[in-house]
């Protein structure tokens, strides 16, 4: 089957034009589908939208919302369960030019409410449950002037909107939208600090979709399992069927993974994009139930440091020919670079195990990548003197149309994270440290803020931890620095595998110290601490909260 043609119309309203293009090219193809119930025999009932219906429904909703007061630029929070109605409403907002405000999955309630206040939400669209949250936290929603209910409505007033219409709707005109208009604001999880509202314009979002089409190698009948609220919004514009599972997407790792494997086998899912932890849990479920997933064509891994062993069980249940791609990026720009899993296993894994870092591949097309001297200072212009040559570690900075130009109302973050070039284009400082090899591949070494600064030079988290993770009794490890920031003592904390049982911990510590001494990258590490269970983020459950581990280490070492 031929790949879907790249769609490059006039640089205006590209996102909404993609919806119409897909409706014209594949009108009865399924855009969005979600399981809603099961009968007594275990057969699943689904709710779905075709591409034609999605285009018509969003035209109808855009008119209804605009008539009720929705307008271009209005920051709008949609609090509904992800599904066909949710997708229709968000794309109707895109057509109007209103700005959906999306919260990162796994965000805490406190951080969520802080983001709502920070974004000065002007319009609110919600289910009954969403409105109850709004009413119970009214002080955080003071800026809201326009309220809509989708579904059952009670006492809170406002407008009622329905996606159920049988009327033929004329096309909604989006002539007023420009490529640099804000398309959406996505709040980061704030695992290590304040959440930031990442602004994406129509042009940056469309360029992101173009790169995702290439990454996914999209074909007409491809079916993608959507496990992340941000990306599930983009898949319909890519021309792919987006399958939304009946699980809580904010906390997918708490779900029954048999629901995922059932969906794959029932619908014939061809693509899954998720973090290694999710693939690990799906793999456990497959092993338990002796399940294979022959329909899978492509796997895209994102979200955390890639540990191949996490996916061993999953990989045994799919065809050997399945293309597994490791992807690197962030909310500000995704994807940044990609690496084929086969290349990782045959060419780079053995170097990672010697402390060279994790290879994240070459940059995707349309992006410029440079490495600059690691510094905590703001940089106003990208000059040659801050550039780092190949083979040396520096901070990754990224430039190109897919890059988010700024944060919402956060001048301090903009001043630090954004660099304006001589041609007025924006470079994004990733905060990640890496080096580039002779083939142009990037090797991720760790976060700049997490590097341990010793008198003999810096130690990088990923470079060191990969070595310790090779030990059969180590589940994962985390490097932290204790003491004065310019003269830190490196401490390696390890979380042991559950299966290692009651084996003497002192014996394991001695083995790890010997491992550290035998490698140039880790020979300065002379302290190993065992931790019962690392603090992690709420979504991936594998992004380690190192600040808490540093405090843990300081209490033990400094008293």
Percent strand equals 15-25%
Unreliable stretches, pLDDT < 50, 5 or more residues? 1-13
Shape: globular
Task: Quickly give the structural class.
Answer: alpha/beta
Q: What's the CATH topology name of the largest domain?
A: Rossmann fold
Oligomerization: single chain
CATH class (first level) name of the largest domain: Alpha Beta
Specify the helix fraction band.
25-40%
Rounded to the nearest angstrom, the distance between the terminal CA atoms is 65 Å
Total E-strand runs: 27
Q: How many structural domains does the protein architecture include?
A: 3
Main pleated sheet = 14 strands, mixed
What does this structure look like?
With 559 residues, the protein is of the alpha/beta class. The chain contains 15 helices and 27 strands. Residues 1-13 have low confidence and may be disordered.
What's the short version?
The chain has 559 residues and is an alpha/beta fold. It folds into three domains: 229 residues, Rossmann fold; 90 residues, Luciferase, Domain 3 (Luciferase, domain 3, Roll); 108 residues, ANL, C-terminal domain (GMP Synthetase, Chain A, domain 3). It is built from 15 helices and 27 strands.
What is this structure's SSE topology?
Elements: H1 14-25, E1 30-38, E2 44-50, H2 51-67, E3 75-79, H3 84-96, E4 99-103, H4 109-119, E5 123-126, H5 128-136, E6 146-150, E7 159-161, E8 182-187, E9 197-201, H6 202-216, E10 223-225, H7 229-238, E11 241-243, H8 258-267, E12 271-274, H9 276-289, E13 298-301, H10 312-316, E14 323-328, E15 337-340, H11 341-352, E16 358-363, E17 368-372, E18 394-399, E19 406-407, H12 411-417, E20 418-420, E21 426-436, E22 442-447, E23 452-454, E24 457-459, H13 461-468, E25 474-482, E26 489-496, H14 505-517, E27 527-530, H15 546-558
Helix pairs in contact: 1-2, 2-3, 6-7
